[in-house]
Write a structure and sequence with these properties.
With about 425 residues, the chain is mostly helical. Helix content is about 75%, strand content about 0%. It has a single domain, classed as Na+/H+ antiporter like fold. The radius of gyration is 21 Å and the shape is globular. The termini are far apart.
Length: about 425
């Protein structure tokens, strides 16, 4: 069997499994993303180990992972399309406080837990930083399914995630520089300058250049020209976020969606991106998270350490972000909802953890415990959010029309009722 046929076989299994698992999850009263994550674990090294069967080329695992990365970019791009820039800026105070305390509290608790278990100071600090990370893509998908992404909590959550990303990247960069003995004030200022430059340029381009480009392309005799331009802009923003701003590509994709939402061609872009994302790339992303973890690699002797950091990860992020949201002006219930939405570590937690093991900051035992934490926090977030948003839903939460949801109207998962 050729490599292409192997890839075709795996993609067929992944897509079919994702949709069936999502459908069953909805029928059981849970968000579809939970079923997709669970079936990914089933197909991964924890049970079946689909990517390492004897007739599968090992290089295909990398291809699946890259397709999944496109999926998360599209997911965050769609989340940006669902919003309006002025709506997001109205919740800046909540987002800033929620993002700041959502990083500070779990990072401090993670450092303290590491020291309590006998880790050296550098390893304990890095452990804290892994607990400070957040993957909002899981929460964004759940909120889109529940039709509350444009509620005050949803808007604040996405804004807090941007602040979270900036702070974690900034703290991690500073820590790595200091640990290597190259940290100084000029280096810190350079990191901040890159972030500010990216944010300023991306917003300026989106406000003044992008609308003109969209209008021009819309009148050209090009097949799907508007959709193609939107995808190019999304990828360019993701590249710029990584290379210029030193931030995560998903942050760039989210900002690209926000800018694209101001375009008069928004509906055409949404229709095309939804079909492409939810028909192919997003299911691969959720499945690949399960394919990336191996439950069997967790060390039995590290069970208490693993349980401790899982508990600290959930409580620290939930309480920290929740307190920040409360100080920012949300009521108690909304603050609890926002804190819960920040719990998932997802692919961001795995990326930060991989930096630690590559730099020699954590050993294989600590790495397996961190992977366990990422897995649990990712799995518990969707059902917690569903429970918090579907019971006694506040009147302040607005629902989008069905055609504006993150799940396309012809997707069987859209049969969910809330």
């Amino acid at each position: 069997m050729t490599t292409f046929l192997q890839l075709a076989l795996l993609l067929s299994i992944i897509l079919l499994s994702a949709k069936l698992a999502g459908y069953l999850s909805v029928r059981l009263g849970q968000p579809s993303v939970l079923g997709e994550l669970l079936v990914g674990i089933l197909l991964g090294p924890s049970v079946i180990d689909m990517l390492h069967l004897s007739f599968i080329d090992p290089a295909i695992a990398h291809t699946i992972a890259e397709l999944g990365e496109l999926g998360v970019l599209l997911l965050m791009f769609i989340a940006g399309l669902e919003l309006h820039l002025d709506e997001l800026t109205k919740n800046t105070r909540v987002a800033a406080l929620g993002g700041f305390l959502g990083v500070l509290v779990p990072t401090a608790l993670g450092w303290g837990t590491g020291r309590l278990f006998g880790l050296d100071n550098n390893t304990a600090i890095f452990l804290g930083l892994t607990l400070g990370a957040t993957s909002v893509s899981i929460s964004a998908q759940t909120l889109m399914e529940l039709k509350v992404l444009r509620s005050r909590v949803g808007l604040s959550l996405l804004g807090a995630a941007v602040f979270d990303d900036i702070l974690v990247i900034l703290f991690l960069s500073i820590f790595l520089a200091v640990a290597a003995g190259t940290g100084n004030l000029a280096g810190v200022l350079w990191i901040l300058a890159r972030m500010v430059a990216f944010l300023a340029l991306s917003v300026a381009f989106g406000l003044w250049v992008l609308p003109w480009m969209m209008r021009r392309v819309a009148h050209l005799p090009i097949s799907q020209g508007v959709l193609t331009l939107a995808l190019v802009v999304m990828l360019a923003y993701g590249l710029a976020a990584e290379l210029l701003g030193g931030m995560a590509a998903i942050t760039g994709a989210f900002i690209a969606g926000l800018m694209m939402a101001r375009s008069g061609e928004k509906e055409r872009v949404e229709h095309g991106v939804h079909a492409l994302a939810y028909g192919l790339f997003v299911p691969i992303f959720f499945i690949n998270i399960g394919l990336s973890v191996n439950v069997r690699s967790l060390q039995v002797e590290m069970i208490w350490f693993t349980l401790a950091i899982i508990l600290i990860a959930i409580i620290g992020k939930w309480v920290g972000a929740g307190i920040g949201a409360r100080l920012g002006g949300l009521n108690v219930r909304e603050s609890v909802q926002l804190g819960a939405g920040m719990v998932s570590r997802g692919e961001v937690g795995l990326i930060v953890a991989s930096v630690g093991i590559n730099e020699g900051l954590v050993g294989s035992d600590q790495f397996s415990a961190i992977v366990g934490m990422v897995l649990v926090t990712t799995l518990v977030t969707p059902p917690i959010l569903r429970a918090l948003f579907t019971e006694n839903k506040p009147k302040t939460q607005t629902s989008l029309p069905e055609t504006e949801q993150g799940v396309s109207s012809d997707d069987p998962q859209n049969e969910e009722t809330t």
